[in-house]
Write a structure and sequence with these properties.
Layout (H helix, E strand, L loop, with lengths): L6 H4 L5 H11 L3 E2 L11 H12 L12 H15 L9 E4 L1 H13 L5 E6 L4 H8 L3 E6 L9 H7 L4 E7 L11 H13 L3 E5 L25 E6 H4 L8 E4 L2 H11 L8 H12 L1 H24 L13 E5 L6 H11 L2 E2 L16 E5 L4 H12 L4
Parallel strand pairs: 1-10, 3-4, 3-5, 5-6, 6-7
Antiparallel strand pairs: 2-8, 7-8, 9-11
The structure holds pyridoxal-5'-phosphate.
């Protein structure tokens, strides 16, 4: 058959996650590559989904999300960040952060609009922008602390720039943006009338008492920022795909215009469970943060006794480690999964401009302690 797909599709390669997960299965490897927990979220939340289903909450939800969840999201942000969003028209519940990103980018970008993206990036940003016929422009977060050069950022802004995308706390580096960095980005966004998408799916995963600051809380930013988060990350149920976006009503309207003709609504019982989960967040978060702080400390301590020196993550559940040999990340990741039975992610796929990604590997520490220990044990067996 000679069926032809669209030209837009031709620019979409197989994702590195698909490749590495396939290799992990074929080689019976410990998987420190895949970016999600290998353990369940809280049992009481599973019970809530079941109860919602039993109570008949199984039909289409309102397209922007059920009222209690929207209300609880706005109350959460009022209480922790002192920011006021209207649950009527400034919040939309989405099929994970992924749908919010796709719809926000498609509702903002016209052909040829430029979008500033920090690299290494969460790869869906690039493909969302390319699918919207936008042009990604890159600013590098440099090793070892993953800070960026303010001049490089300012020079990346042209008269075609429409949007800046930031991810804070950051996947894959674990960076948490400082107030000074956010202020610099905000000042240029307001000066140049740019929109900002702030992907904050790891907002509750910060370590060593480092605070996460939503860029929407800086002066002049509330009206120009789409803030995106994910209950999948916060409650450890990535497969439920419940996320949301908060932004001014015009931006939310744009996201909703796309959602009407893509997913229409998010699954109803999980929205009810997450709405309940948010009412318990003050009891839940300390345990959740403690669990991940312990996992981050464990992986750092193990890595410090290996050839793979870690860079220190202050947020998210990822860590970048330095490659000890002169090998590039792609070759080494394949060697490690094949010969040492441990899967990692070669991060050069998250870079478009700098070569720094070739000198590191990304590991995910949202894993049971036994998985972490046995994965690192295999890394320790690596011989240069
Ligand atoms: C930075 C970042 N944004 C968005 C997502 C996707 O979130 P969701 O599963 O809620 O769609 C992920 C998932 O790994 C992520 O790491």
């Amino acid at each position: 058959m000679n069926l032809k797909l669209s030209k837009r599709i031709e620019q979409i390669p197989e994702s590195v996650f698909t490749t590495m997960s396939r290799l992990a299965i074929e080689n019976h490897a410990v998987n420190l590559g895949q970016g999600f927990p290998d353990f369940n979220g809280p049992e009481w939340l599973i019970e809530e989904v079941y109860q919602a289903m039993k109570q008949g909450k199984n039909q289409y939800a309102p397209s922007i999300g059920i009222l209690t969840l929207r209300k609880n999201i706005t109350e959460l942000y009022k209480s922790i960040y002192d920011i006021n969003w209207s649950y009527d028209n400034e919040v939309i519940v989405t099929m994970g952060a992924t749908e919010a990103l796709f719809s926000a980018i498609h509702s903002i970008i016209d052909d040829g609009d430029e979008v500033i993206i920090f690299e290494p990036y969460y790869d869906s940003y690039i493909y969302d922008v390319l699918l919207a016929n936008g042009i990604p422009k890159f600013v590098t977060l440099h090793k070892p602390d993953f800070s960026f050069n303010f001049d490089e950022f300012e020079k990346a802004i042209t008269n075609k720039t429409k949007l800046i995308i930031i991810n804070n706390p950051h996947n894959p580096t674990g960076k948490v943006y400082s107030f000074e960095e956010l202020k610099f980005i905000s000042d240029l966004a307001t000066k140049n009338n740019l929109i900002v998408i702030s992907d904050e799916v790891y907002e509750f995963l910060t370590y060593d008492n480092v605070s996460h600051i939503p860029i929407s809380t800086l002066p002049g930013m509330k009206e120009r920022t789409v803030t995106i988060s994910s209950a999948g990350k916060t409650f450890g149920f990535t497969g439920w795909k419940v996320g949301w976006a908060c932004a001014n009503r015009d931006l939310i309207k744009g996201i909703h215009s796309i959602r009407q003709w893509t997913t229409f609504a998010v699954n109803t019982p999980c929205q009810h469970a997450i709405a309940y989960g948010l009412t318990k967040i003050n009891e839940y978060l300390p345990k959740f943060k403690k669990l991940y702080q312990a996992k981050r400390d464990l992986i750092i301590n193990e890595l410090l006794n290996s050839l793979f020196s870690p860079t220190i993550p202050y947020g998210s559940y990822f860590i970048m480690v330095n490659i000890p040999s002169g090998k590039n990340d792609m070759d080494l990741a394949i060697e490690l999964v094949r010969d040492y039975k441990v899967a990692t992610i070669p991060p050069s796929v998250f870079y478009s401009k700098s070569d720094e990604g070739k000198t590191m590997l990304r590991l995910c520490f949202a894993k049971q302690d036994e998985t972490l220990k046995s994965g690192i044990k295999r890394l320790k067996e690596y011989k240069i």
